[in-house]
Amino acid sequence: MILWRAGCGESRTSGSVGGLRKPGRGNPTKGAAVRPYSKLRTVRPSVYLTLYVVLDLFSRYVLAWMISSKENAALATQLMNESATRYRIAPGQLTIHQDRGAPMTAHRFVDQMLELDIMLSHSRPRVSNDNPMSEAQFATLKGQPDYPDRFANVAHARAWHERYFDWYNFEHHHSGLAGYTPEQVFTGRHRQVILTRQAALDENYRQHPERFVKGPPQAKSPPARVTINPYTPEELAEQGASAAVNFPTMPAVRQKITLTAK
Questions:
Q1: Could you read off the pLDDT of 191-203 as tens digits, one per residue?
Q2: N or C: which end of the chain has fewer CB within 10 A?
Q3: In sequence order, what DSSP letters do the residues of 167-207 get, joined into one string?
Q4: C-alpha distances in Å from residue 29, one per residue of 5, 20, 25, 184
Q5: Is residue 228 classed exposed, middle or buried when 0-12, 13-18 and 19+ CB atoms within 10 A define those classes?
Q6: What dihedral angle (degrees, nearest 10) is formed by the CA atoms of 235, 241, 245, 247?
Q7: Which residues have CB under 8 Å from 192's CB, separation 6+?
Q8: Are 123 and 14 in contact (CB under 8 A)?
Q9: What is the CATH number of the domain that holds 22?
Q10: In the chain, how many domains are there?
């Protein structure tokens, strides 16, 4: 199963104890996350651009992005259609977890995703931590030293984000990935990097074992499994919560899936 993550960078999201649980994945060759849009300020007061991003949940790799002067379901649908085609997503293979922004809950978007046999999961309303990886990615983006406070136009925004996403995917050593880049984890090249790191650590240990008081060092690996707000064993024991994944979370989507299945 592939997981994509979708939602709005400026919105509130969800994940409090006791609600429906969100998807997780543990296979680095399958699974992705979509994060469709965030607002970008321009030099014109009260005029904003919209940044749409498709983010892989497991590797944090940015699969696709686009910038528009509009925010609507048609663009979100275009983004997902082209992404699914480019990455050869098979029917029934993909799940998108997203917030409840208007583009992501519009009938046009929902209908198209169901036509592609893409499962939809939505965050719970009025809770603030269901988009942790997507929010972190936008925080990294807008926290860059050269991030413009305001963009002059769409061309200016595209030029800046093109440089940023190239750096983010191929040069950014992600703390959540044990220091590997999103591209290395997405493509699986991190396995070779681990061997190279381990060889260097072994040589350092051979030459200076006294420096390693805890024994031979081990090269770290990125997480083998990624989840969104998982229950802890203590929460399960105290509240009797279910660890089962529940999606989609919108009654309207459940109804559409039921009608489609008949």
A1: 999 999 999 999 9
A2: C
A3: HHHHT---GGGTT--HHHHHHTTHHHHHHHHHHHHHHHHHH
A4: 16, 26, 10, 12
A5: buried
A6: -120
A7: none
A8: yes
A9: 3.30.420.10
A10: 1
How many Å apart are CA 86 and CA 84, to the nearest integer?
6
Predicted local confidence at residue 252, as pLDDT: 62
Nearest to 33, CA basis, from 65, 11, 61, 66: 61
Rounded Cα–Cα distance for residues 254 and 111 (Å): 12
Long-range CB pairs of 230-236 (<8 Å, 24+ gap) are: 230/21, 230/24, 231/17, 231/21, 235/17
List, in sequence order, every residue forming a beta bridge with 24; answer none if it has no partner.
Answer: 227
**Structure-block tokens of residue 40:** 């970008």
Share of the chain above pLDDT 70, in %: 68
Place of tokens 């090269």: 219
CB atoms within 10 A of CB 131: 29
The DSSP bridge pattern shows strands 48-56 and 119-122 to be unpaired
The sign of the torsion formed by the CA atoms of 216, 217, 219, 223 equals positive
Q: What is the mean pLDDT of residues 158-179?
A: 96
Backbone angles phi, psi at 66, to 5 degrees: -155, 155
